[in-house]
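FORM 12-B: Structure-to-Sequence Request
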């Protein structure tokens, strides 16, 4: 991602680098939320979060599944396990935002 691509993330997500992986995923809206009640166990869905960040992250992850070796391998592994494409892409979005969070937290550049 170039400097211009990072502007929405830095402007709309100033917490990037300050939160742990679960918190940043929930803040963006890519963390699975339980829909359980009593003995009923529902499906897990993503919900809430910041839609503008999720939109930017979605497009960046679509590109990353083709070009980024780490995300691409993770995406292909999930598809090989039988996950639906949207579910695999959402998991990649979560992995991507946690990687970006760690990079900002540790003040390091992307390294394979």
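FORM 12-B RESPONSE
SEQUENCE OUT:
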């Amino acid at each position: 991602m170039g400097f211009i691509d990072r502007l929405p993330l830095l402007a709309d997500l100033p917490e990037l680098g300050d939160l742990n992986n679960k918190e940043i995923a929930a803040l963006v809206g890519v963390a699975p939320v339980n829909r359980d009640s009593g003995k009923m166990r529902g499906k897990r869905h993503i919900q809430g979060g910041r839609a503008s960040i999720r939109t930017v992250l979605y497009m960046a992850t679509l590109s990353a599944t083709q070009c980024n070796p780490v995300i691409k391998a993770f995406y292909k592994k999930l598809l090989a396990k039988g996950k639906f494409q949207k579910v695999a892409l959402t998991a990649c979005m979560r992995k991507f935002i946690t990687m970006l969070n760690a990079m900002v937290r540790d003040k390091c550049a992307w390294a394979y």
